[in-house]
Amino acid sequence: MRTIRFIGAAAIVGTLAVTATACAGGADGTTGGSEETIDVSFGFIPDFNGTSLLAIAEDQGIWDEYGLEVETPSFTNGPLQIQALGTGDLDFGYIGPGAFWLPASGQAKIVAMNTLGQADRVVAQAGNETMDDLRGKKVAVPEGTSGDMILTLALEEAGMTKDDIELVPMEPSAIVAALSSGQVDGAGLWYPALATVKEQVPDLVEIADNTDFEDTVSFPTAFVAGNDVVADEPEKVDRVLKALRDAIEYRAENMDDAVRLTAEYNDLDTVDVEGDAANVQVLGLDEIDQLTADGSVDSWLTGMVDYFVEAGKLDDAVDPADFYTGDLWLAAGE
Fold first, then answer.
1. ∠ at Cα 332 (330, 333), nearest 5°?
2. According to a count of CB atoms within 10 Å of the terminal CB, is the N or C end of the chain lower?
3. Structurally, what CATH architecture does the domain formed by 120-213 represent?
4. 271 CB-contact burial (10 Å; exposed 0-12 / middle 13-18 / buried 19+)
């Protein structure tokens, strides 16, 4: 069972109360050694990266297999979920790469890798072909997101900083409206939101995308948990990770179904979700395990930490082991 609540930047995250249910059994009639159902609040963003595993877990009965009663409030971005994790109003959430500095700064733990994002763009109105063309012009961005990240990288590559543009912080939905109406000259944003903009502005120019920077920084997406949840509720964490592992395996083997379920979950057109998924590098379960075990994920996170230090989001470099619980992820598969 799920309950969806939409939470925007100006909203105060309320207490997510869920009612305990009767005992639920796993695939072998157990729930990880306990018969008690565990209540979980799990935030998400209504796009393919942020929704597909939750949609699969619900449809395939995976939550029930592990004795989990899950409520899934919807958020507009990752930083809001980190805030909710910190106040105890949320147990788990989903973040894109632009918000990784928040767990790196100690505000949460990354508990599972998800996908590699390829949907981020710096876009501009017609007549602007380069970053230099945006000098002194209005450029919108959702702060602390992957849109912010790719804008910063594109400015740096052009020998510019945010001081060289008129930065306009906005929520993603507001950026869609502002680009469509011509109120801003450019933006750091992502698909599928940009697909909506292009319906109104077909000559929108894409100046930069993730692949321009893949040699220096990766753009992983991930699932996060509150520090207290990881420290004090190991059974909850283990069951959720087991459920995510099953959903990841199903997604890799059933992409068409994953797209359909995501569309149904978010009440979106399947064609739009297909376009969104086309900008995602889906990682299989064995692949995530291998990348975690051989240190590749740590390399991604180290590169991102270096970026966040340079961008002023972090004061000092941080060891990935301080905020990525790869040991718990691998243990959940044993």
1. 70
2. C
3. 3-Layer(aba) Sandwich (3.40)
4. exposed
269 contacts 199 by C-beta, under 8 angstroms: no
Q: Is the peptide bond before 142 cis (omega within 30 degrees of 0)?
A: no
- CA-CA distances (angstroms) from residue 164 to 124, 160, 188? 15, 6, 15
Q: For the whole model, what pTM was predicted?
A: 0.80
CATH top-level class for 6-116+219-331? alpha beta
Cβ neighbourhood burial of 197 (10 Å; 0-12, 13-18, 19+): buried
Please give the sequence-ordered ranges of beta strands (E in DSSP) within 136-267, or none if there are none.
138-141, 166-169, 186-190, 205-209, 220-225
> pLDDT tens, 83-104?
999 999 999 999 999 899 999 9
Pairing of strands 6-7, 74-75: parallel
**pLDDT of the residue at 311:** 87
Q: Enter the tokens of residue 138.
A: 């209005």
**What is the domain partition of the chain in residue ranges?**
6-116+219-331, 120-213
Do 6-116+219-331 and 120-213 show the same overall fold?
Answer: yes
pLDDT at 144: 80
Q: Rg for the chain (alpha carbons), in Å? A: 20
The string of pLDDT tens digits covering residues 5-44 is 334 433 333 433 333 333 334 433 344 444 699 999 999 9
pLDDT of residue 72 exceeding 50: yes
3-state secondary structure of 188: strand
Report how far residue 77's alpha carbon sits from residue 126's, in angstroms, rounded to the nearest whole number. Answer: 28
